[in-house]
Fold this protein.
Amino acid sequence: GAGVSQSPSNKVTEKGKDVELRCDPISGHTALYWYRQSLGQGLEFLIYFQGNSAPDKSGLPSDRFSAERTGGSVSTLTIQRTQQEDSAVYLCASSSRDSLNYGYTFGSGTRLTVV
Amino acid sequence: AQTVTQSQPEMSVQEAETVTLSCTYDTSENNYYLFWYKQPPSRQMILVIRQEAYKQQNATENRFSVNFQKAAKSFSLKISDSQLGDTAMYFCAFMGASAAGNKLTFGGGTRVLVKP
């Protein structure tokens, strides 16, 4: 696609439920990143994919968080047994190998609200 | 680990005037890249300007320019002739050249409000 697409745009879930957030990167971009942005805060790194593998998952806050990427394209971030502190905007970004040093292209994010 | 600090939570400026946002960072790397991103209410992060640490010349993109002081580890953004559409959150970010995956580390952001 022309840009990074994320779905859903907004998600309200009950505490304890599982949620899946989807990211569709720019076609041909091999690198994919997930960040979390809590209300009024900066962006916190979660995980990085190169192709289908995740060389750096150091930012995942707990074992309730996992992510996968298939076909070198779409990625899914899964949060199990959601807690209220998981409420945030989850941003996805992608980059091509040749433009890694030029910054990323971001999606518009998924706003997750846990009630 | 790298850290990025933005000391101004919020700035306001009159339309057509100039505003400067501060950013400092901490790193032991010699080669790296610095960025300013804009985040309007649509939530999408938009790249405003980029600076390579090995270049002494300050980057400029139309009304946006930076003052890069490598020794002081300072990277401020100047917005000239401010426009209403510049109202947004602005984030400073660091990327080490040697970091695997070229991970971006962000500051906490500065909210800019342009008043008519």
In short: Chain A touches chain B through 26 residues (CB under 8 Å).
